[in-house]
Design brief:
By secondary structure, this protein is mostly beta strands. The chain has helices at 192-196, 222-229, and strands at 3-4, 10-14, 33-35, 37-43, 50-56, 67-72, 81-88, 97-102, 109-113, 126-131, 136-143, 146-149, 157-162, 168-176, 181-188, 207-208, 234-238, 241-248, 254-260, 266-274.
Length: 277
């Protein structure tokens, strides 16, 4: 699973540096980093739908596989949901890793992960990917190997691979239209905490993220669900119980229904549910 980077990462907002202060771009060293390039858009045959839009070549010594990126768009999805999927060249699309964030004005959605690669394809790289909304004029990355302005795809996605074993600080810089910038900083290799506990600082009312709901959800109460996820998108009552509905970010009109006894104890959790009309 791809993770939105905030926990364990520094976030800085400020003024755009002058052109003279920009680091000089150098040719990417394929032993360290691979910069994704836009491709001709074509359908990505995922249950949510979307388009394949970028590809990054193999990286590192020994070589990690190249990766492809798709921008996902489920029918009926909220316009604020920003979702991508990445898959190593040589594996099926059903094995792609996906991640979503909620659009925040003047900020890019940035994801990073060690993606998990079959041994036969080589060591796993670190994948950095994301989407730049229209109020972001350009994206740059600065880290091991150099500094680059990143190409953007048809739907303004970007993709970078860092070779397995590379160490150092990485900054993803989003330059805002009209001035100013937003920077997300993290360290390679990614920490175990970042990998184990993805954080979702950007939320919208009545929605949860797909990786937030597991078997342990049944141990939660109505109070803790609302505390952690916010108010539900809909709430209904029947036979002394109440059921809260939450959409899943990036998955359109379907989501989760959590039902609670009169005491607030959860008694059931059902996925792939449509919101009541």
């Amino acid at each position: 699973m791809l993770f939105a980077l905030v926990g364990g990462a520094a976030v800085v907002a400020g003024c755009s540096p002058s052109p003279a202060s920009q680091p000089r771009e150098v040719q990417p060293n394929p032993g360290i980093v691979s910069i994704g390039r836009p491709t001709a858009s074509r359908p990505f045959r995922d249950q949510r739908g979307g388009t394949l839009e970028m590809e990054a070549s193999a990286v590192g010594k020994p070589r990690s596989p190249g990766f492809r990126l798709a921008v996902l768009r489920a029918p009926g999805a909220d316009a604020r949901d920003l979702c991508v999927a990445t898959a190593a060249v040589g594996i099926g699309r059903g094995e792609a890793n996906s991640a979503c964030d909620v659009r925040v004005p003047k900020r890019a959605a940035v994801f990073a992960m060690p993606p998990g690669v079959p041994d036969r394809l080589g060591p796993e790289p670190t994948v950095v990917a994301g989407i730049a909304p229209s109020d972001i004029s350009r994206i740059a990355v600065s880290g091991p190997g150099g500094h680059w302005r990143l190409p953007l795809s048809t739907h303004r996605a970007f993709l970078v691979l860092y070779a397995h074993g590379v160490r150092g600080s990485v900054r993803v810089i989003a330059y805002r239209r009209g001035g100013g910038s937003f920077t997300r900083t993290f360290s390679l290799p990614l920490s175990r905490h970042t990998n184990r506990r993805p954080s979702h600082p950007h939320r919208r009312r009545g929605a949860v993220f797909d990786d937030e709901v597991g078997e342990s959800i049944l141990q939660r109460s109505y109070t803790t669900i609302v505390r952690d996820f916010g108010s539900p998108a809909a709430l209904d009552r029947e036979r002394g119980s109440r059921c809260a509905y939450y959409q899943v970010v990036g998955q359109g009109a379907i989501g989760w229904r959590f039902c609670f006894a009169g005491t607030g104890r959860m008694i059931s959790a059902s996925g792939s549910q449509h919101l009541p009309s």
